[in-house]
Specification:
mainly beta; dUTPase-like; 144 residues; Deoxyuridine 5'-Triphosphate Nucleotidohydrolase, Chain A; EC 3.6.1.23; 35% strand; three-stranded antiparallel sheet; Deoxyuridine 5'-triphosphate nucleotidohydrolase
C-alpha cells in the first residue's frame, strides 16, 4: 500500500525494522528535551503528516522496551489517526515510573501500525441472539 506523507522532521521516514514487523517506530521531533516527572504526560510531536486511504487508520502504540525499561507508555492506546486527519502526528506520552524521564530529540517514542477498519451500520432490534457466555462481564469465563 502506498501512503502519502510529509516529513517536516529531521529524521528518516518511519520504516519496518524486519520483514515481519507490524509497526514502524516514530521519533520525537523536539526543539528542546521534554522532562516528564512521575505521572506527568505530554504531547510529543513527530513532524509527520499522513494522507491515509479511506478505510484505513494509523494506530499509535507504546514501544515495549520503553515501557519495560523506563515506564513510558502511550495514553489512549492505541491512539487513532483517521484517514481524513491532516495535522501533525502527536504522541501522548505518560511517565508511569517513580522517577523523572527525559525525552530527547530523535528518541523512538512509539510505534505506528497501519490497519484496515470497517464502519458499522446499526440495526436496532428488541433482543440479541443468545450465546453460552451471555451477559457475563470481566473475568466471567474463568481463569483457565
Amino acid at each position: 500500500m502506498k501512503v502519502r506523507i510529509i516529513n517536516k522532521s529531521q529524521h528518516e521516514l518511519p520504516s519496518y525494522q524486519t520483514s515481519a514487523s507490524a509497526g514502524m517506530d516514530l521519533r520525537a521531533q523536539l526543539e528542546a528535551p521534554v522532562r516528564l516527572e512521575s505521572l506527568e504526560r505530554a504531547v510529543v510531536g513527530t513532524g509527520l503528516y499522513l494522507e491515509l486511504p479511506e478505510g484505513y487508520e494509523a494506530q499509535i502504540r507504546p514501544r515495549s522496551g520503553l515501557a519495560a525499561r523506563q515506564g513510558i507508555t502511550v495514553l489512549n492506546s492505541p491512539g487513532t489517526i483517521d484517514a481524513d486527519y491532516r495535522g501533525e502526528i502527536g504522541v501522548i506520552l505518560v511517565n508511569l515510573s517513580p522517577e523523572a524521564v527525559t525525552i530527547e530529540h530523535g528518541d523512538r517514542i512509539a510505534q505506528m501500525v497501519i490497519a484496515r477498519h470497517e464502519q458499522a451500520e446499526w440495526i436496532e432490534v428488541e433482543a440479541l441472539n443468545s450465546t453460552q457466555r451471555g451477559s457475563g462481564g470481566f473475568g466471567s469465563t474463568g481463569r483457565n
